[in-house]
């Protein structure tokens, strides 16, 4: 066992929360959502359900909020789960159906690519009259490639990444349209590891949401425990995380990140100084490790996503640009 592997295994037990801790988290965040939608007089919350762990957890938390509002305030809040199988395996599709049937009060399955129907309560909605329209949209974007090459950016062309981002943004458009029509908001399914450590999301896609319930929960250690206390299936908890966009051949988050979420959580927490001095000193001796370098490179390269837009505002002495700064 090398020094890096030994370090990860030594730190891992320090990261695992108790079920009691995560049960309290579930109660707090679901109550916060209930209070928010009640005060805003909203009638629905809308989320995409993929069959993955994060959307299952958010659906369960949203249902807790809905049940609380019904019991305590006699207020009806619809939990609308939307299954959008763009590049979805049959296993993920069946798991998405289970999540919808278990936690959502209603929801459509939007058939973008003529996915075969299954026995479930979803209303099947064929989004495209023309079966191959999604592929045509992706192909249309590739017509920009000659221009991109002419101005010197040909090496940036990545067909799979471009297609994956388009699929993510189509999902966002769909969720927001449904939320508008049902007087609701869009729930995010991003967690701390994706949103604050790896910045593993699409701007204008799954990164575009109204309300984030699990943004402070890390994926590698806390999310599985939270899912367990919420009654999520073991098959969903234990499966390899995937965004379902087929950006890599393996179609897993790990293939894109070059590390597991447990590694990402430990590395970034060390980098941010969130452990005791002895652990941080040991971490410094491992900085040449390839996995650590990959994770830190991604953290530094994509942290701009967190900074948000540069805003031109009017101050005391005229217009000024304001923005969030971030370290390198």
**SS-based structural class?**
alpha/beta
Largest sheet: 4 strands, parallel
> What is the terminal-to-terminal distance?
31 Å
- Considering DSSP H and I runs of 4 or more, what fraction of the residues is helical? 40-55%
Q: In angstroms, what is the radius of gyration? A: 21 Å
Low-pLDDT residue spans: 111-119
Q: Total strand count, please? A: 8
Strand content: 5-15%
Report the order of strands and helices. Answer: HHEHEHEEHHHEHEHHHHHHHEE
CATH class: Alpha Beta
Could you name the CATH topology? Rossmann fold
Strand order of the largest sheet: 2-1-5-6
Please count the helical segments: 15
What is the residue-averaged pLDDT?
Answer: 85
Total separate domains: 1
**Which CATH-level-2 architecture?**
3-Layer(aba) Sandwich
What coarse outline follows from CA principal-axis ratios? globular
Quick one: CATH superfamily? HUPs
Question: Any overview of this molecule?
Answer:
The longest helix has 23 residues. The protein has one domain: HUPs (Rossmann fold, 3-Layer(aba) Sandwich), CATH 3.40.50. The strands form 3 sheets. A 4-stranded parallel β-sheet has the order 2-1-5-6, sandwiched between helices. It has a two-stranded parallel sheet with strand order 3-4. A two-stranded antiparallel sheet has the order 7-8. A hairpin with a 2-residue loop joins β7 and β8. With 328 residues, the protein is an alpha/beta fold. It is globular and about 55 Å long. α2 packs across α3 and α3 runs parallel beside α4. The chain contains 15 helices and 8 strands.
């Amino acid at each position: 066992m090398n020094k890096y592997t030994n370090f990860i295994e030594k730190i891992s037990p320090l990261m695992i929360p108790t079920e009691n801790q995560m049960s309290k988290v579930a109660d707090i965040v679901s109550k916060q959502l209930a209070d928010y939608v009640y005060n805003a007089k909203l009638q629905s919350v809308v989320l995409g359900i993929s069959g993955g762990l994060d959307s299952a957890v958010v659906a369960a938390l949203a249902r807790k909020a809905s049940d609380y509002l019904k019991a305590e305030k006699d207020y009806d809040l619809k939990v609308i789960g939307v299954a959008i199988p763009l590049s979805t395996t049959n296993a993920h599709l069946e798991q998405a159906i289970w999540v919808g049937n278990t936690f959502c009060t209603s929801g459509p399955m939007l058939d973008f690519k003529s996915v075969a129907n299954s026995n479930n309560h979803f209303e099947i909605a064929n989004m495209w009259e023309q079966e191959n329209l999604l592929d045509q949209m992706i192909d249309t974007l590739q017509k920009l490639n000659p221009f991109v090459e002419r101005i010197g950016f040909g090496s940036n062309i990545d067909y799979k990444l471009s297609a994956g981002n388009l699929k993510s943004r189509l999902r966002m458009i769909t969720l927001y349209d449904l939320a508008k029509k049902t007087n609701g908001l869009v729930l995010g399914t991003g967690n701390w590891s994706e949103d604050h450590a790896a910045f593993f999301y699409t701007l204008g896609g799954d990164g575009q949401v109204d309300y984030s319930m699990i943004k402070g929960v890390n994926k590698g250690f806390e999310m599985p425990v939270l899912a367990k206390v919420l009654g999520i299936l073991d098959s969903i908890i234990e499966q390899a995380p995937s965004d379902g966009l087929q950006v890599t051949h393996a179609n897993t988050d790990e293939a894109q990140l070059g590390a597991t979420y447990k590694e990402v959580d430990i590395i970034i927490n060390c980098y941010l100084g969130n452990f005791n001095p002895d652990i941080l000193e040991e971490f410094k001796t491992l900085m040449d490790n390839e996995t650590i370098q990959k994770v830190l490179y991604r953290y530094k390269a994509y942290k701009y996503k967190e900074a948000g837009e540069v805003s031109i505002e009017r101050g005391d002495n005229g217009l000024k640009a304001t923005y969030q700064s971030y370290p390198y």
